[in-house]
Write a structure and sequence with these properties.
- β5, α4 and β6 form a beta-alpha-beta unit.
- The strands form 4 sheets. Strands 7, 8, 9, 10, 11, 14, 15, 16 and 18 form a 9-stranded mixed beta sheet that branches. The protein has a 6-stranded mixed beta sheet with strand order 1-6-5-2-4-3, with helices on one face. Strands 12-13-17 form a 3-stranded mixed beta sheet.
- Helix content is 35%, strand content 20%.
């Protein structure tokens, strides 16, 4: 989708459709919409008065100009009640406009920037959210479809328009950031949506290398002998059950501008999780191709950060492997030694994510970072606690957690903090090793984080458990069915805030 930004008068714009946002239960206040209503002989006012369109969030309506304007169609999208309006609702409404444009088989459409004021948000923020909503809603993976190709329709061009020429520069900046952010999330979606027989650890590493060349970050991939030299016994323990060789992906963005220290992102890269010897139920096991969603988020965020050239030294680490049962697979009762020297008793081979992250988090410490953030589809317990509305957040640094919450508010990717009290350490104590990899069912998300905390040292650290946020089953305004790409936009917003980048 080509993104354009224009400052033109309503009557000058010619496109497949002109699109406008309206608040629920309120007569249109925007000067441009009042002008539109005048051109259409009161059609917008009549539509509101009929009750067929109320401005409810994500509601859409189509009007036809009947030659009164150069554009044939008008599409209206509801924003919901003004008191509940935020950037994510604007993003949703933009996604709804894109979906309607696709239903109408439009090649292109234009969206007018709303004149609504939203405390704490700028014209640039509005532009970014609108562009993100459109680009994210237009996403689909088409490589495996051979039938019904005519249904796989994509918008060719999208224009963001405002009559006020003074807004052109800030609109353009917001649109640019929105395009990078949304395209980065779509990169993650691609990686997650591909089947596991394609998206192997080697392929995941190849994609990271390809993106590094395209966007300008550094990338090094360690193979089995090199991983063994690092004595990553926890990571290797998981990998030993698969014929696919593991890969440890190390990415690095070194900005041209002065930076504020090092941030390390760590993503769980289990390209397929059968549960190993502790085999999962067969129902929906195919969804376990998405167990590398954390890795996809980190790789895609690295690409986005490089494109933005964010002024922060950013490192991305991905331990990538499959978790499969075989004659060589890790067994319950086994003991492995992580690269930190910590010994781990294996209670469940289906608690493998924390094992691969243990060695990756230990490796992160060599960069002496200002912040370590790991992201993983780690525990089913997090789905029980939070459902599919947001991810769990735990960590050891109050200020870092507040920064993540602030970024969440802008990106619309919700986080909810869970406690990490010392009492939970008791659940992961082992009788025969230093710790064990499962503390049982009670507080499963928290004890998994308590396990990870053993490997971060004294560095500021956040753990994001995105189980339940990797796949969308029904489809939402800007999230089609399938991979969500959760965490990419959150990371990019956090890094922008952290580095003072605008």
């Amino acid at each position: 989708m080509e993104i354009k930004v224009k400052t033109e008068m309503l009557e000058e714009v010619k496109d497949g459709a002109l699109c406008f946002f309206l608040l629920e239960g309120e007569r249109p206040q925007d000067k441009t919409i009042r002008k539109l209503d005048s051109f259409l002989s009161g059609a917008v006012t009549f539509l509101f008065g009929s009750g067929d369109f109320t401005g409810k969030l994500n509601q859409t309506a189509v009007l036809y100009t009947e030659g009164k304007l150069d554009s044939k169609r008008i599409i209206l999208a509801g924003l919901g009640r003004k008191q509940k309006l935020d950037l994510d609702k604007l993003r949703e409404a933009s996604g709804s406009l894109c979906k309607k444009a696709k239903e109408l088989k439009l090649k292109s459409y234009s969206v007018f920037l709303p004149e609504i004021k939203l405390k704490g948000n700028s014209v640039s923020d509005f532009a970014q959210a609108i562009v993100e909503g459109a680009v994210l809603a237009d996403y689909q993976l088409v490589e495996y479809k051979t039938a019904d190709k005519e249904d796989l329709y994509n918008i060719k061009a999208f224009s963001l328009v405002d009559e006020r020429k003074a807004n052109l520069k800030v609109m353009s900046r917001g649109a640019e950031l929105g395009e990078i952010s949304a395209n980065s999330a779509n990169l993650a979606r691609d990686m997650i949506n591909h089947p596991a027989n394609y998206m192997t650890p080697t392929k995941l590493a190849d994609i990271a290398v390809s993106l590094s060349k395209k966007t300008g970050f550094g990338c090094k991939v360690l193979s089995l002998p090199e991983i063994k030299k690092l004595k990553m016994g926890a990571f290797l323990g998981v990998a030993q059950g698969s014929e696919q060789p593991p890969r440890f992906i190390i990415m690095e963005h070194k900005p041209k501008l002065k930076n504020r220290g090092t941030v390390v992102l760590v993503g769980k890269g289990i390209t397929f999780d059968s549960g190993g010897i502790s085999l999962k139920p067969s129902e929906k096991m195919g969804e376990m191709k998405a167990d590398m969603s954390g890795a996809a988020a980190v790789i895609a965020a690295m690409a986005g950060a490089a494109q933005m050239d964010l002024p922060v030294h950013l490192v991305g680490l991905v331990p990538a492997t499959e978790n499969l049962p075989s004659g060589t697979a890790l067994k319950p009762g086994d003991i492995v030694k992580a690269s930190s020297g910590t010994t781990i008793e294996i209670i469940s081979t289906d608690a493998e994510g924390r094992l691969v992250l243990a060695d990756a988090l230990s490796y992160a410490r060599r960069f002496e970072p200002k912040a370590i953030i790991d992201i993983a589809t780690l525990t089913g317990a997090c789905v029980i606690a939070l459902g599919h509305a947001g991810c769990g957040m735990l960590g050891n640094d109050y200020r870092l957690k507040e920064r993540i919450k602030a970024a969440s508010g802008k990106s619309g990717e919700k986080v909810w903090e869970l406690p990490l009290w010392e009492e939970y350490d008791q659940q992961i104590k082992s009788d025969i090793a230093d710790i064990k990899n499962s503390g049982g069912r009670p507080a499963g998300t928290i004890t998994a984080a308590a396990f990870l905390q053993k490997f971060v040292g004294n560095y500021p650290w956040i753990h994001l458990d995105i189980a339940g946020m990797d796949l969308e089953e029904k489809g939402k305004p800007y999230i089609p069915k399938g991979a969500v790409g959760f965490g990419v936009r959150l990371f990019l917003q956090f890094l922008r805030n952290y580095s003072g980048y605008r």
